[in-house]
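residues and backbone:
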Amino acid sequence: MTALLATGTLLCSGLVAVAVPAATAAPERAAAPVAYIANSESDDVSVVDTATAAVTATVPVGDRPSGVAVAPDGGRAYVTNRGSGSVSVIDTGTDAVTATVPVGDGPFGVAVTPGGGSVYVTNFLSDSVSVIDTATNTVTATVPVGTLPNSATAAPDGTRVYVSGGAAVSVIDTATNTVTATVPVARANGLAVTPDGSRLYVSTQHAGVATVIDTATNAVTATVPVGNTPFGAAVSPDGSRVYVGNIGGNSASVIDTATGTTVATIDVGATPIGVAVTPDGGGLYVANSGSGTASVIDTATNTVTATVPVGSGPYAVAFTPAATASADIDVDITARPSLGILVPYLTYTLTARDLGPEAVTTATVTAKLPSGATATRLSPGCTATAGTVTCAFGTIAAGADVSKTFRVPLGLLSLGPVKVTGTRTASSPADPNPANDSASSHCTVVSVLLATCS
C-alpha cells in the first residue's frame, strides 16, 4: 500500500450497482441486504449479513481482488482480480464462483449496467475498459480510455458509463462503446452519480476534494473540500448525501449535496478505500484496508455502530438489493343455502388469507356473480353492482385471515349450476404468487326455494 501511494498510483474503490430490476428473476434472499467485500491481500471475498454485521461466508477468488459490484437482480457479484487479469463471477445464492472471465491487464474498478446485461471493467495497466456480456460471461468489446483507469459507475438510465483515471474522467456511450467526452480531473478516483443522473461526484486524490461534474454539459461545476487523500465515493439512494473515504485521514467525509459542503467527518479504521451505502440508505460500509475491517456507520447519526473483521486488505464493498416486501394472499370463497323467512338465498363468504411473509396493508377482492344477480346484506367494506361484489380489506397479519359475506336471493338466479368466482384485484405489498389469487364456489339451484352447494 505504501509503495503504491508513494508513486502516486491510484487505488480502486468498489462501486455499487444501481438497483434497477433485471430481466431475469432474482433468487430468494434474506430481508436484509448482504455485503460483498473484496479482500485484496487474502485473495477472497467476505460475505457479510448486514442484519447481524457478521461474516457468513468467505469466497476464494483470483489474485488481489480490488473491485466488486452486484447485479441489479442480486443474483451475481462481479469481482476484479488485478493480479490475475480476470473477473470472478460469484453466484450469490450459493456463494461460489461459477465463472472466471479474462479481461485486460490490472483490472480494478467494476460497474454493472442498470439492466444487468453488461459489466464494465477498468484495466488499470492497459488503459482500457473491458465490456462483459453477462449472459455469456464473455468480453464483447474493449474500449480505449485515458491513462490509469480506475473506478467505474453507470448512469441511472444506463446510457453512459463513467471511468476515472490519472488525468480525467472518460464518458462511455454504452450503445456504441465509445468515449464521447473526456472531463479533465487530475488523479480522479472514486465515482458517485446522483440518482437523477444530473451530477457526478469524483474523489480527487491529490487535491483533497470531491469534484462535481454536470453530466448534461460534462463540465466541472464545483469542488467540495473533504479529507486527506480521498478515494472511494458513494451516494445515498435519495441523493441527499455523498460519502467519501479519506485514506490519509482514516475518515469518511459526508457531503450535503444541496449545499455542496462537507457536514460531517467520521473516524473509521486504517486506510479506508471502498465505501458503499446500504440500499435503504440507513447504513454506510467502509472497507479499511489497513485494519482488515469494515466500519458500519449509521447515516442518521454519522456514528460507527459496528466494526466487522473481514479478510486482509479489504478494498471494495457492494450490496445485494434489499428483498422486496411481499404478502401472498390466498383467496377462498364458500357458499351455503339459507331458507329466509320470506326469501331463500345463498350466503357467500369471501376470505382473504395472508400467507406472508409480510402483513397485508390493503387488499381488494372482487366476486363475479351470475348474469342478472345482485348481492344484498353486504359486510362493511363491500360494495355491489349488477353482477359483481367488491370487498376492501384492511390490515391482515401474516398467518391470519379476514372474511366478508354477502347474500344472493335464489329468485335472481337461473335454475341449474351457479358459479361465483372471487379474485384478488389489488393488494399491498406486492403479491408474489398469482396461483392462489382466485377461487370459485359451485351451487345448483333446483327451484326458487331449493339449492345445494358443494
Remarks:
- The helical segments are 2-6.
- Residues 2-6 form the longest helix (5 residues).
